[in-house]
Write a structure and sequence with these properties.
The complex is a heterodimer of chains A (405) and B (234).
Chain A (H helix, E strand, L loop, with lengths): L1 H9 L4 H41 L2 E5 L15 H9 L4 E16 L2 E10 L1 H8 L5 E4 L9 E5 H7 L6 E7 L5 E12 L4 H4 L2 E5 H8 L7 E6 L5 H11 L5 E5 H4 L1 H12 L1 H26 L1 H9 L4 H37 L1 E9 L2 E6 L6 H26 L3 H5 L3
Parallel strand pairs in A: 3-8, 5-7
Antiparallel strand pairs in A: 1-9, 1-10, 2-3, 2-6, 2-9, 4-7, 5-8, 6-7, 11-12
Chain B lengths: L7 E14 L2 E14 L3 E5 L6 H8 L7 E6 L2 E2 L5 H11 E4 L11 H12 L3 H14 L15 H14 L4 E5 L7 H18 L3 E4 L3 H4 L4 E6 L2 E7 L2
Parallel strand pairs in B: 3-8, 3-9, 6-7, 7-8
Antiparallel strand pairs in B: 1-2, 1-4, 4-5, 9-10
Helix pairs in contact in B: 3-4, 3-5, 4-5, 5-6
The chains are: A alpha+beta (405), B alpha/beta (234).
The structure holds adenosine-5'-triphosphate and magnesium ion.
Chain lengths: 405, 234
Amino acid sequence: MITLKIAFRNIFRQKRRTFLTILTMFGGVTLCSFSIGWMDGSYNYIIDMFTRYQLGHIQIHRQGYIDRPSLYDTIDDYSVVASSIESAPGVTRTSPRLYAAGLVSVGDKSAVSRLIGIDSQLENAATLFDRKITSGRPFSRDASREAVIGVGLAKRLAAVVGDTIVVVSQGADGSIANDAYTVVGLISTGDPASDQMALYLELADAQELLVLDGRIHEIAVVADDLHGVRRLASLLQEGLADPGLVVEPWQVFARAFYDAMMADKAGGWVMLMVIVFVVAIGVLNTVLMSVLERTREYGLLRAVGTRPRQIFWLVIIEVCIMAAVSVALGCLAGWGLNYWLSIKGIPMPFEFSYGGMEFTHAFTEVNTRSFVIPIVVVILSAVVVSALPALRAARTAPAEAMRTR
Amino acid sequence: MSANHSDAVVVTKGVTKEYSDHGIPVLAVRGIDLEIKTGEFTAIVGPSGSGKTTFLNLISGLDRVTEGKIWLNGKPLSEMSGRELSDFRRDNIGFIFQAYNLIPVLTVTENVEYIMLLQGLSAEERHRRVQTMLGELGLDGFEKRFPPQLSGGQQQRVAVARAIVAQPALVLADEPTANLDSQTAIELIDRMRYLNETHGVTFIFSTHDTKIMERAKRLIVLKDGRIDSDEVRE
Ligand SMILES: Nc1ncnc2c1ncn2[C@@H]1O[C@H](COP(=O)(O)OP(=O)(O)OP(=O)(O)O)[C@@H](O)[C@H]1O
Ligand SMILES: [Mg+2]
């Protein structure tokens, strides 16, 4: 009690020093909170762009398809599945997809390609397919025998809009599948590897070519919010009648992308360590200064019977009070900054477009981590760093401290 | 052995303290045998470096002896752990130092009641004792002041109040008047003497000031860490 009183009043003794200590910790918390908000915000933005406008946040396949794609592992009653998925809360849209390998040729040039059957209306709505067309046009409304090809593939085939493209593949019934289509547009999805291979057909055309009437391989699901995707995926899984279908969030079906993002994110911790280090040094400096200055007081307190433990806590409590104030203010500032920039965005040094999206701003994010981590890290480092001076204060030898020489 | 000294507050036998000054041993106190009885008002004097502070620190348990033994209220200090010694000081010894006696962020009242707070006395009891004590030392009206707002003499009076308010067996004062002008110094020592006579508080104090020594009932002169003379006056 009396210890608390002394600790509290000590804070007001060296107002300048207290101010600087609080400012250091406040700066640390704010910066820490902001850098987490910024880091999470920009990564989640990239992730959201790539999943929302490309892969889908969630994908549904027949069991085993992701590991070993086979023409025969299909979702048969997809419209039933899709409508049940779409009625789930948190789901924005779905889009069916069908995949096969094929040999394509334009004139005397041929190349191996990936045939992708899409329902262009649904795909446009779900992943803005039409906005990624770089030349020519998207599929027309009742498209028939139209093809859209990746810019990379177009280059390999020296194909231009208006060319006729011949596709040879194998139908599900074992027959040779071949047909000719008109290239109506070239697409740049932002994923060059995909654009090297991709040939898009209207779903109906693809199903006819491959003799997969009414069947597809994949349902891509776009969610309202990137954050709840894992939970949404398991919710959708529970709601599926067919146990042979697996619902996977992007973290699972796009494992490599996920791992790359996480590895990249780890670099952000270096920044955090630097902040912690600066805060720790600042706090150590001021606390040590106070403790050395107050040697006589600690000596007096020890002489009249204060236990070392009480003096230890006297120092720690003083730091904790300052830390509490700093953390409260820092969280407020960090929250304000993250909230403001999550709406307004930070203009990028250079704008670029990717997969049909214009990137002009980066956005921060307000999340629990951006409070919890700075609070824990700053308070912990302040207390840990103060333990040494506090121990020194607790060990003050009263006879030495009170000697007037 | 302590049984033979039932009215002795302090008994020392062959107390010796050796310091090491950059590796060179310094004998600050060399075999002091002494007995202080309850109700004494003793001055310890002697030239600078004669061992006054060292000896006071030893009998108050602020420092440990190199050789010899000290009993306080019949209890041997050397057998106590650091923690026991700390609690023993709190409950049995009042301290008045030459300066820096008070915690600057605590008011006069809070400084005086500090030890009683450590002892866990009730608020009522603390309040009662603080009021009486401040009254006796002429500090009425200064309750809410902070030490830096007091004169040197007033600060030392607060220190005296703090030292005796918890009713210790012994009050030790190392040059309590050294920082005061001679008029204020005499006033302070007279108040201490008054408390000694009316409340029976046992005081041991050190001083260089001959006017202050004259107020003592017993005068012990130290020289080179030994007792040079020990006379009871009045
Ligand atoms: N911590 C220490 N380390 C080494 N020597 C010390 C230490 N403390 C005291 N001494 C030495 O012990 C001797 C006695 O010192 P002490 O302070 O007890 O004398 P004093 O009588 O109180 O002197 P003064 O009147 O100046 O206060 C001196 O020679 C002093 O230098
Ligand atoms: Mg001295």
